[in-house]
Each structure stands twice: as C-alpha cells, then as structure tokens.
Amino acid sequence: MAAQEPSPPSSMESNKPGFPKKILGNKLEDKHLCNCCHNILRRPFQAQCGHRFCSYCFNRTVSNGPQKCSACIKEDIFEDPTSILKQGCAFPDNAVRRELRTCQLFVSMKVALGKAALKSTS
Hints:
Number of domains: 1
GO cellular component, one term: cytoplasmic side of plasma membrane
Pfam families: TRAF3_RING
CATH class: Alpha Beta
Largest sheet: 3 strands, antiparallel
Radius of gyration: 17 Å
Keywords: Metal-binding, Zinc, Zinc-finger
Protein name: RING-type domain-containing protein
Region (Disordered): 1-23
CATH topology: Herpes Virus-1
Distance between the termini: 27 Å
Oligomer: single chain
Structural class: alpha+beta
Helix content: 25-40%
Low-confidence stretches: 1-12
Strand content: 5-15%
Number of strands: 5
C-alpha cells in the first residue's frame, strides 16, 4: 500500500511536529520553519522573542517549565526575560499561517495544472 501524503499546512492537528519541507519545495523562508523541529510550521506560534514554533513543539518544549530559547542562544541574541519560553507567553502566528496556506494553494494549483496539461497531451 502507498504511503499516505502528509496533510497540508492548513491542518488543524496540534499533536504533531511540523510538515516535511518537501511539501512546499523551494518556496520556503526561515520564518516558515519551526525553530525546534526545523520543518514547516504546523499551527505556528510566535514566542515573545520573535522565534516561531509549531504548537506541538512549543508545548513540548515548555512542558517541564520555562526554558531558554535555543534559537536566541544560537543567534547570540539571548535577552532575559524575553528569550525565556513559557506557557502563556506565545501567541498563534496567524500571518504566517495565512502565508503557508497561500504557498500550499499555489503548489496545489501547479500540480493540478501539470496534471491537466499531461491529460491534454495524451
């Protein structure tokens, strides 16, 4: 049986990390990637420090209490208390969610147009 393709980025499932990068190909910017799993954001959240995480990844990161943002540390921009990740200090990033939906829609349209072109040449 063929492997099932992952859901598109508009999926509302929050119990999984990000989507594989291959879904959107080269249409990705860093802001579309989770700073934890490094995949395409699923239900994107933005922390106070500005870094983005999948809802699942953020909740998993802070499940044992406040944590230092590893992306802030890596970029050498750690600032206390802004770079401390904790429950209630991140918000859904609806702008990036809409951008990802637009990217997915564009890819879906290209695939559909490609299939239609193949059928018309057969």
